[in-house]
Description:
Distance between the termini: 137 Å
CATH class of the domain at 130-258: Alpha Beta
Number of helices: 10
Shape: elongated
Order of helices and strands: HEEEHEEHHEHEHEHEHEHH
Structural class: alpha/beta
Strand content: 15-25%
Helix content: 55-70%
Amino acid sequence: MAENTTIYTPTDILNIVKEHLRTVNSTVVIEGVYQMVGTKAYNGGIWWYDEIKAQYDNSKLKAMVPTGIRDQVNQGDVVQLCGTISKNVNDYDGKIELILRVSSLLGKRENEISDEELERLRLLQKKAAKGSRPVDSVLESILYSSERHPRVALLFAESSITDADFRAGVQAASGHVDFKEYRQSFNNTAGLISQIKAIDGEAFDALCVVRGGGSGLEVFDKPELATALMELTTPTITAIGHEQDMPLLCKVSDRNIGTPSLLGQYFKDMVESVNEKKSKSHAALTEKIKKQFQEQLEAGQKQNKELQEKLTTISKANEDMQKKQAEAMGKLQEQLKEQTEVSKKQAKDFGDKLTKMQETNSQLQKSLERVNAKNTDSEKQLAVAKEQAKALQKQLAEAKGGGTNITAIVVMALIIIVLLVLLIVK
């Protein structure tokens, strides 16, 4: 930044502009239609902020009107007001506003504008509020898309002969725009309205009303025709009369070209402009694609190099891992071999012990069988001894009764008992 550069703030700039706008307040006389747009009085009921509107267009001027003067006029009166013009700069957004400070009412009269003229003004206001559809953008976007041609309706008067320039322009664009011509009497307003409504239902991208100069242009100033045109869903283009002609229909259309010749040139220029832009955009797109491809190629090569490095690292790590796995597997196999040998030895020892246990069990079984056999014999001998004991008891009892030698019998019994005891011990 240069050393002598002066830096301003927004406030500084606004103050400079205000200073430049200050002029000697010269008295002026303004004539127009009085519009009571103010909703309240300011400064204790002294001032009202209304508007003075031009009689034949939509130009307006804000007016600061004393209450005493305001009470003398009516809405829509054509008034002559004397006052001064002040120029204010809005500190918020920097807009410059002109205000008529009214000092006196020089005259007034009722608005002499006809009902038809008032209707025209109303339609212009409505059009200004509604705005125009971007016909150029609509047609150009379709031309750019290359998916289809724009569809354009051309409405001519029944007996009109279009000039050579119009035909030449349309012919030059016809390879890229689908034109369809309609003929209708422009002197029949009702028929003309019916025709444009019918065209509106055929899904055109634009409707052009085309009429050369000469007499009979007053039909295009009729409010009912302008109203019908504003209500169409299809974007509208007018090319009526000469360049200086500006009927109401041209003012409410979405695009006014001026003359039929200029309309033909309009389509020719649009097609050529779009084709040129498409060629440039194609070249730019090709260059962009080449650049993107080169960037992608370089990025791919870089990524491939990084992947190769990663693959090398992974391969080395894989080799180390395989080596470690082989070593671990060898150790595991040695351990498994040792464990197998131990298991075999343990199995052999267990088999030997099992064989010995089976042999011991067999010997025990045989011993048990001998013991059981001896027990069986002992039981038999015991049974015999018991029988003998019973016989001795019987003899002893008989001996007591018959005087037999008891001592001999007792001795015999003792011998038998001893024998029984010996049998039991065995």
